Amino acid sequence: LIGTLGETTATPYFICRLRDAMLSSLTGRRILRDRPRITTKTMPLKHLRTLPEKSVGRAYASWLDKEAVSPDTRDQVQYIDDEECAYVMQRYRECHDFYHAVTGLPVLVEGEIALKAFEFANTLLPMTGLSLFAVARLKPAERSRFWHVYLPWALTNGLRSKEIINVYWEEQLERNVDDLRLDLGMEKPPDLRETRKAFRKQRKATEDKMKRVGGPRSL
Questions:
Q1: How far apart are CA 107 and CA 18, in angstroms?
Q2: Which of 15, 118, 123, 205 has the lowest CB atom count within 10 Å?
């Protein structure tokens, strides 16, 4: 259902705009010509795990392992008639995990919303913007963190960064991930899992303190 909505809301204008962005880039044109696919058959995950820690490929494989995600879970495009535009949508879907890897955002709802906000600012695909309604599902502390930290990061970096659809990820696997972010004009957001962990620790310390203060007093 989500995939269908993503395809129907992207046509005809938005997916054509993204296709045109690729046609205006030398690398984007090569991607459209070669039409590479990102699956477990085309990505040598075993090899990527042996690459230097700061490499794009290692970051990608490590993120897949940490989040228990497979690149084979992306739906095939069905409702975009133009063959080239259909491939652009397929490429966007299959590159999504690379976006996670270079930003470090996890598959938690909070992380997905933050990444969708970045994608909306960068790609203008309507479904990525509609995904922001999921903010209503977040807990109060998570919503506050999104509005004050991750949404400003997403909009600033999504608008400032080069068109991320034009990254030929298959050719960037051995590159230093920090160098790639610098080249794209993208800053890495605060580590969401560590932020959540620190918040829980602080909340527990506050609760323990309140229990001690509010406990029975000896006469």
A1: 25
A2: 205
